[in-house]
Design a protein that fits this description.
The chain has 80 residues and is mostly helical. The chain has one domain. The longest helix has 29 residues. It is elongated, with a radius of gyration of 14 Å.
């Protein structure tokens, strides 16, 4: 259940940041990010990618998720 919730959260955050996110496959946003960056991310084995390339794909996703979690925490603190 937690993985599904995390995927849905990722999808909401990335959609709010202008990415085209399929609600049934929110993890697919990584392919859109990779395409924008010119990184050849495939839905199969990606052993050819360097750590730097993988980080360039994951960075925007993780960064946006962290920003949103901080905003959520701030809102919760305001309510208390």
């Amino acid at each position: 259940m937690a993985n599904k919730d995390l995927s849905q959260f990722k999808g909401r955050v990335m959609k709010a940041n202008g990415y085209n996110v399929d609600k049934n496959n929110p993890d697919d946003v990584k392919y859109e990010v990779a395409e924008e960056l010119g990184i050849p991310l495939e839905k199969r084995d990606n052993g050819q990618l360097t750590s730097r390339q993988a980080g360039k794909v994951g960075g925007p996703i993780g960064g946006n998720m962290i920003k949103e979690m901080i905003n959520m925490a701030k809102e919760q603190m305001k309510q208390k």
